[in-house]
Amino acid sequence: MPEGCELTYGEVLDRVRRVQSDYAASGYGSGHRAAVLLENRPEFFFHFLALNGLGASIVPINPDLLATEIAYILEHSEADVVVGLGPRLQDLREVASRIPKQPPVVGAETWTQAPPMGRSAASGPPTEKSEAAILYTSGTTGRPKGCILTNQAISRIARLLPTTSGSGCVLSASIAEADAGADRLLPSVTDPFSRTRVGSLQRGFRCMSSALC
């Protein structure tokens, strides 16, 4: 919706419930991950909230990344499905076909149902410690690191946003201020023992913020 739109809370809730029902019917739940390339569109929040309610996690993809960079994120995060926008679907399908898991790619704008999930969800309901999202650093000093945010971290960010002035994106600052950086890092493909202090990740979160706000 590049020209902009207005949505009521009720309309958003209805869209989220419909998308969530589609995911649930296809078997998505705790332990599953969806990579999303949805830019600054309402669809991002429809899918994020729908998946979060089922206990599944999202992996936002910066639309400015190169194909090789997207392929790394899809493989490293072990994404189960990729949701994208029409102009990028062919690119995403080509990228997904290059990695071993070959996750299915679907369009948010032509959404009718989620692809069938090929593995069972983890048992038990999601908790505040459950994974909500994986944000990837910019990778300026090496391979991007997957920073895992829990539901608790997302909640802290949400509480901070109303107190933050300005109309620009504040996600990177909020994460740092909330001390809600990565609860843990996904091991790097090339360095399975790599760990990075939360404070050093602020630049990475800022680089990824264009995919989230």
Q: Which range best describes the helical content: under 10%, 10-25%, 25-40%, 40-55%, 55-70% or over 70%? A: 25-40%
Global outline: globular
* Name of the CATH class of the largest domain: Alpha Beta
Q: In sequence order, what are the helices and strands, one letter per element?
A: HEHEHEHEEEHHEH
The pLDDT mean sits at: 80
Rg from C-alpha positions?
16 Å
CATH architecture of the largest domain: 3-Layer(aba) Sandwich
Strand order of the biggest β-sheet:
2-1-3-4
N/C terminus separation: 14 Å
Offer a few descriptive terms.
single chain; alpha/beta; Rossmann fold; three-stranded antiparallel beta sheet; disordered C terminus
Secondary structure blueprint with pairings:
Elements: H1 9-25, E1 33-37, H2 42-54, E2 57-60, H3 67-77, E3 81-84, H4 89-96, E4 105-107, E5 131-136, E6 146-150, H5 151-160, H6 171-177, E7 184-186, H7 202-208
Parallel strand pairs: 1-2, 1-3, 3-4
Antiparallel strand pairs: 5-6, 6-7
Explain how this protein is built:
- There is one protein chain.
- With 213 residues, the chain is α/β, with parallel strands linked by helices.
- The chain folds into 2 domains: 7-114, Rossmann fold (3-Layer(aba) Sandwich), CATH 3.40.50; 130-213, no CATH class.
- It is 34% helix and 14% strand.
- The chain has helices at 9-25, 42-54, 67-77, 89-96, 151-160, 171-177, 202-208; strands at 33-37, 57-60, 81-84, 105-107, 131-136, 146-150, 184-186.
- A 4-stranded parallel β-sheet has the order 2-1-3-4, with helices on both faces. The chain has a 3-stranded antiparallel β-sheet with strand order 5-6-7, with helices on both faces.
- Helix 3 (67-77) crosses helix 4 (89-96).
- The longest helix has 17 residues, at 9-25.
- The protein is globular.
- The two termini are 14 Å apart.
